[in-house]
Amino acid sequence: MKFKLTIAVAAMIVGCALALAPGHAKADGLEFAVDQMPHMVGIGVGIVPDYEGSDDYTFAAAPYAKFKLNGTERYFLVKGYEIQANVMDHPWFRFGPSLNYRFGRDDDVDDDVVSKMEEIDDTVEAGGFIGVEFIDKTNPRRRFLANVDVLADVGDEHEGYTVSFNARCWHPITRALDYGAGLTVVYADDNYMETYFGVNANDSAASGLPIFDASSGVKDVRINQMLIFHYNRNWHVGAGLQYRRLLTDAEDSPVVDDRGDENQWLAGIGIGYSW
Fold first, then answer.
1. Domain span at residue 214?
2. Are the CB atoms for 227 and 178 separated by under 8 Å?
3. Number of separate helices (H) and strands (E) present in the chain
4. Which has the closest alpha carbon to 246: 88, 53, 48, 91?
5. Fewer CB within 10 Å, N or C, the chain?
6. CA 8 to centroid of chain Cα atoms
7. Looking at residue 37, what is its pLDDT?
8. Is the dihedral of CA 83, 89, 94, 95 positive or negative?
């Protein structure tokens, strides 16, 4: 399998480390608050689908970094290949711009039929997010987060947009271990769906797949399971598993239905250092 950097694994693996930022933890008998050490860097490695809808899997890696302005709730966040900046200094309301690098689909994919289709170049997406974060004051390791992310193509590749609805919660299960669960629903417009799941006449002639026009709709639903182990006040290890179910025209596309799988799995581990 090829080694590839993908936004999918960034959201999956490094997202585990993201949950450390606002919480508290105990390790080696020492209670500490990670939000008193507002900076963190990390990296994750794991296995993800070769492309969106593929039944072949490849290794992947992604970085993570968070830097918080002292004395405020404002922060700058790098999770994989997406950059976010929370501009609100509010105890629970989050809002700010986003910038994302989305990887395409080239002729180096493992599937020998899909590889004959027209390549999809990498692109840049821009947009923003709005959300809430509620923390239990009696035990800050218990918390609930929800947000909406909107990203639109500014690199003239798919020329569409996606809207993601995310919710996740965290709860301590031992003195040094936190458990997290999350649910994400992603909507994509016509342009996005046609780019990544459509089969035009040229693609059909080259690959033998039937012509398929992909329309807008709920692209996928994702279920996340995550664990964070706090080794000490600086070092943290995360592990995550995500099940992603493609839906509507993403599921019905010949790229997925004939050559791939609508059931997608992502798994990985990550390590983070905070100070």
1. 3-274
2. yes
3. 6, 15
4. 53
5. C
6. 5
7. 61
8. negative
Query: How many other CB atoms sit within 10 Å of the CB of residue 20?
Result: 24
DSSP label at residue 11? I
Confidence of residue 107 (pLDDT cuts 50, 70, 90): confident
Count how many residues are written for the chain. 275
Please state, in angstroms and rounded to a whole number, the distance separating the CA atoms of residues 51 and 68: 34
Q: Is the pLDDT of residue 148 over 50?
A: yes
The whole-angstrom separation of Cα 157 and Cα 123 is 6
In single-letter form, the type of residue at position 69 comes to L
If one counts the domains in the chain, the total is 1
Contact 37, 233 (CB under 8 A): yes
Between the ranges 36-40, 125-129, 226-230, where is the mean pLDDT highest? 125-129
According to DSSP, residue 28 is labeled T
The enclosing domain of 125 has a CATH number of 2.40.160.40
- Residue 12 φ then ψ, to 5°: -80, -60
